[in-house]
């Protein structure tokens, strides 16, 4: 992959090209997103606009993206970031475990030049538009349609928290059938993570249900945890506390040491068991 420190001089010849504005984009119109053309030198008014545009464009093309290699400025805001296809990388395993990581090389490098950039525009400095797999927008749309809408999330919160209808929500949430009285906490956690992932795409949330629609695996990383992971993941320690919580699930924690040798939590997961398959799901 091209370095994030790629020379930005080529942007001088393309800075006059029109900047795409999310305010002029109809978020509910996939046809408009399909018309978007990404190119090297393309500019955005903000990081949020850049991430929104690229993420939704990718969906119309038939793939999802992940965010990697974040470089921050002294004030904590973004300076550079790399956007990759979710099939990037290679999952190392000694078994024949299936994985979505198949070494796809598609990626975009984004940068906010510190000089000659009075409006703090974000530019595409690298666009490697080659995939190692077939693209299918229908599959992506199907996955998005399975997500719970914000309106339904608010209704779930009202029923489970305000009305104390945890048991009545069992067919919808079905988090842990043996502990129906604890469904309120589980529903709030699930709702909070989904809302967080919708509001900030830099976070990571992965959820798995069994055939009975029971929650069996839950993994999440906040945006701040993700940034710590990118900076200090040379050594990562994982520890599992087995079935000491009210849901009788295994709690998997990932920690690192920061530049001041402080222990920092960078990821967590709740697993229905400690089998090899469950741990492989976490690392995938």
From TrEMBL:
<feature type="domain" description="ZSWIM1/3 RNaseH-like">
    <location>
        <begin position="204"/>
        <end position="282"/>
    </location>
</feature>
<dbReference type="InterPro" id="IPR048324">
    <property type="entry name" value="ZSWIM1-3_RNaseH-like"/>
</dbReference>
<dbReference type="Pfam" id="PF21056">
    <property type="entry name" value="ZSWIM1-3_RNaseH-like"/>
</dbReference>
<feature type="region of interest" description="Disordered">
    <location>
        <begin position="1"/>
        <end position="26"/>
    </location>
</feature>
<dbReference type="InterPro" id="IPR031052">
    <property type="entry name" value="FHY3/FAR1"/>
</dbReference>
<protein>
    <recommendedName>
        <fullName>ZSWIM1/3 RNaseH-like domain-containing protein</fullName>
    </recommendedName>
</protein>
<feature type="compositionally biased region" description="Low complexity">
    <location>
        <begin position="1"/>
        <end position="11"/>
    </location>
</feature>
<dbReference type="GO" id="GO:0006355">
    <property type="term" value="P:regulation of DNA-templated transcription"/>
</dbReference>
